[in-house]
């Protein structure tokens, strides 16, 4: 039995261990660069997604065309993920960070100068290629610099980064109310300039590397990237012969990619992981979840603007509860998963998001009524926030340690593909309905039921977690 002095001393040690100020300043400098990079990449997803109606009006484009400003960005992020480790070995973390930030700054400038939808989509692809490495770079940077403090540092970083879905709609709302659409992209310029200086001065200079760069599956990259792009473009032009040809070409490329992965030792994705039931369930859950999150950010603003008559500036404020719900769920996630388990938390989160979206759809269309719709969106955000962490953690804990690096890459790519795929599918279905009922606002409301379906599919796949 310990004496009171021993208990008091143990308390002081524990308090000191948890005090963030006791971490070396150089760690916080490095972590600040990592946080800012990941935050910028995520913020630019939400800011543009909730502004599609305004961008469509500015460029005179259709919904199917302008949604590529989001889908192309997300697809580029997914495709560049496997390159990160290879480029780190070639360039080092510091130089790669500076390169990514400079590229992000320049492409943000180009996006603001775009004169047509096609140019905007092209520049968003380039922006996504630079942004796609910032999130995995953040994880790698913190893992190398924090050491035994990684769990604590990762918690602070994640709590900061998760603010992006909350701030994104608010930033978009403020810009659209006070300035032109160009500033949706030009706002990145001063922030990224500061990030370049931080990366140059805060990150340590790395010595010459002795270990060779890992092999990269270039053949797999050249199969999956155009295959998915052709599939999404084919869906947009399904009514034309060119669309059918695109889908046939996409099927051929993706089939060849699967064949290639099964025959290649160091392939881009480890398809053998999908034979593990828990990993397969987690991957399906992550795919549907990311698809539901992005589709929500696309469809709900379109409904609020075109069906309820709210201004794009007001829409940003109404979407803020989505981010608030995610943040609240993230804070509670550790204790909930410890107490209830991964499956219960993820399934309940998916059902909560589905119920919240049902409530949002069934509420009467009264422009002055904002509290109840925002409460419904808070439920959706909280539900979405409760799905991601349990499903990802369940996948990693179910696998052997030697399979974790490839599992992380595979899960990250699959997760990020869900956004552009589901956003394109939902936008295309909405466009078909609008073509049948061009003068009606009903299709915007009916499209929200697709979000209910996506969250229900999340619940079904999460039910297989352990």
UniProtKB/TrEMBL annotation:
Example of a GO MF term: transmembrane transporter activity
Record-linked SUPFAM superfamilies: MFS general substrate transporter
Subcellular location: Membrane
Domain Major facilitator superfamily (MFS) profile per the UniProt entry, residue ranges: 30-466
Domain of life where this protein originates: Bacteria
Topology of the protein relative to the lipid bilayer: Multi-pass membrane protein
Keywords assigned: Membrane, Transmembrane, Transmembrane helix, Transport
The UniProt record lists the keyword Protein biosynthesis: no
Principal subcellular localization: membrane
GO cellular component, one term: membrane
Transmembrane segments: 27-52, 72-89, 96-115, 121-143, 155-177, 183-203, 215-234, 240-259, 271-295, 315-333, 340-363, 375-396, 417-435, 447-465
UniProt keyword Zinc-finger present: no
Name by which UniProt lists this protein: Arabinose efflux permease family protein
